[in-house]
Amino acid sequence: MEAFTGSFIFVYIYICLAVLAKVCDADTESMDMKSNENVNLTTNSWNVQFYPPEIQNLPKSNHQIVYYNSSQMVTLPYGTMTHKWTLQLSSTDTKIINFDDTDPTHWNVRDSESKLLRVTQTFSSAGVVGQFTVSGIRLGFATINIQIWIQNATEKNTTVSDEVLAWQQEYKVSVTRTKRPVDTAFDCSIAVVALLNIFGVGCVTKFANLKNHIKHPGAVAIGFCCQFIVMPVLAFGLARIFQMDNEMGLGLLYTAAIPGGGFGYLLVMTIMDGDRTLCLAMNCLNTLVVIVTAPLWMLALGHFFSIPPQPTDPLLNMEIWLAAMVIPYASGVILKQFKPGAAESILNWLIKPLLLLVTILFSTLGIYINNYMFEEIIATAMVASALLPFLGFLLGGFVAILARQKKDNVKTIAVETAISNCLITIVSLRFSLSQPSGDIAATIPMWVILFTPATSVCMFLGRKIKHCIWSYCEKRLEHQEMLRTEFLLRRGVENSTNTTELSTTESMNLKSRQNNASTRSRQDSFVPDRNSKSPLLQADQQQVTVL
Fold first, then answer.
1. Residue 408 CB neighbours (<10 A)
2. What's the pLDDT score for residue 3?
3. Which of 28, 57, 320, 521 has CA 20 to 30 A from 140's CA?
4. CB of 416 within 8 A of CB of 227?
5. How many angstroms separate the CA atoms of 431 and 205, rounded?
6. How many CB atoms are closer than 10 A to CB 222?
């Protein structure tokens, strides 16, 4: 009974509180409706049209005039004598676009620092027509926030009330660079060079040399984890830490998700002096596995970098370009297996000179063609592009050391972890994404290409400096050892001379002592003994005794 009574009281209190809360909410809503009566009236009563509705593919350094026409769709409230409205333009993307007043007498408020334009006019039944100009500064996407603020003054109260926001809309603008025939030629040449590079890697790969790594795949498995797990996570972390733009962050993730390319083999063979067979085994695995791993990383982390809708599926285009690498690689491997002489000739007389020529052209003409990357890059994005190969090298070597790999394997895994196939990444981004997303994203692998040799050169210079220091130390030690040996030799000669002189003196002294001894012995033989008596002395003594 007591439990029933307690439950009834609890339910009764709950119902009372619910009714009281409902009444309070109703009062609050009614007060809000009364206070915002003018706002609701004006917010839904404006019609503003723009021509063009949005600006797409505005060429960089060009401008576009935007026309607008505004009108009110309902009758003004009773008692309204004047009805003034203000059109305001503002944008936070002032590094990408700049908007200005076409007619300086039309816009009465201009703020160059905050990029704010305001025009105040008296509304009429015919509406208001105006225009403003948008200029492209750098590649990217921008938004112009357009707002209409109104003021009302009545007969009873002639003071102007506070402005009320009546209407707002976002105006989209995209700035691109003018597409030239030389740009298309550059993109196609980069694609050809990337495929030739993969073919060259296949021409130096023999399965007979990979048997050891097939039987003992520990080093290859460590390299696989570093390339396909550590590097994409590292790129995603760098993009988040440095707060990169969506397009640049996506480009950094693309670059890290596509390793290999053949440049690592060149470094292992020349500068790092690592295990060549391990390097070729890792390149073989990369070419076959990247077709699956790269799209998976894009599906897992790519949605964090939102980009505008694309006309084609970027993942499908990525799959096409990654699958295209298998054909020249397999052709090179087959040619090396059955015609090693022909593969060696093609590699030495065709691919190597061509790659050298392309490297020179890319370092000169390629930079001139893509000079926009020096204007569009941000300092934080540049630092992230430089840290990607550098930290990849350190992490790859650290993981290999933890796995207790030998010295040659550590160097090879570190180099292959740091190297990305930037050429195929540039081609995939530019042919998969629409503009300006493709150009902005492609700036990251271009900077990685420039910073990767810098990292290798630093490693090479470090090795040279280390070698010079060791050589200097060894020469100093050899010089000190030579001086010590010379000192000991001189000391030995002096000791031997002193010993010879000492032995000569001692021998002379010994001989003199021997001569003196023999002389004394001869003298002692002629001197009579006092105790012994001669026969003459005994005869004299006897005569004396007789007498």
1. 18
2. 43
3. 320
4. yes
5. 30
6. 22
CA–CA dist 424, 439 (Å, integer): 14
Q: What are phi and psi of 113, to 5 degrees?
A: -75, -50
- Tell me how far CA of residue 498 lies from CA of 326, 506, 507, 511, in angstroms: 83, 12, 14, 19
Is residue 268 within 8 Å of residue 279, measured between CB atoms? yes
pLDDT tens digits, residue range 156-165?
444 444 667 7
Question: What pLDDT, on the 0 to 100 scale, is given for residue 178?
Answer: 84
For 17-31, write each residue's pLDDT tens digit. Answer: 454 454 455 444 444
Could you give the CA distance from residue 317 to residue 246 in angstroms, rounded to a whole number? Answer: 19
Ranges of H-type helices in 347-378: 352-361, 367-369, 372-376
Cα 87 from Cα 76, distance rounded (Å): 18
- The answer to whether 385 and 447 are in contact (CB under 8 A) is yes
Give the count of beta carbons closer than 10 Å to the beta carbon of residue 442.
27
Instruction: Return the SS3 of 89.
Output: strand
User: Distance between CA atoms of 240 and 260, rounded to whole angstroms?
Assistant: 24
Instruction: Indicate the SS3 state at residue 161.
Output: coil
Cβ pair 142, 55 in contact under 8 A? no
Which amino acid makes up residue 44? N
Per the CB < 8 A criterion, the answer to whether 265 and 277 are in contact is no
Cis peptide bond N-terminal to 436, omega within 30:
yes
- pLDDT level of residue 499 (50, 70, 90 thresholds): low
64 burial via Cβ count (<10 Å: 0-12, 13-18, 19+): middle
Q: In percent, how much of the chain has pLDDT > 90? A: 10
Q: Please answer whether residues 223 and 456 qualify as being in contact, where contact means their C-beta atoms are separated by less than 8 angstroms.
A: no
Digit-coded pLDDT (tens) for 523-534: 555 444 444 444
Residue 285's nearest CA partner among 407, 192, 413 is: 413
Contacts of 502 by beta carbon, 8 Å cutoff, 6+ apart: none
Q: Which of 314, 325, 266, 238 is nearest to 290 (CA)?
A: 325
At position 472, the amino acid (one-letter code) is Y
- What SS3 class is residue 175? strand
Contacts 24+ apart (CB under 8 A), 454-460: 454/386, 455/389, 455/390, 455/393, 455/418, 456/267, 456/271, 459/271, 459/272, 459/393, 460/271
Band the pLDDT of 234: cuts 50, 70, 90: very high
Q: Considering only CA atoms, which of 276, 325, 540 is closest in space to residue 428?
A: 325
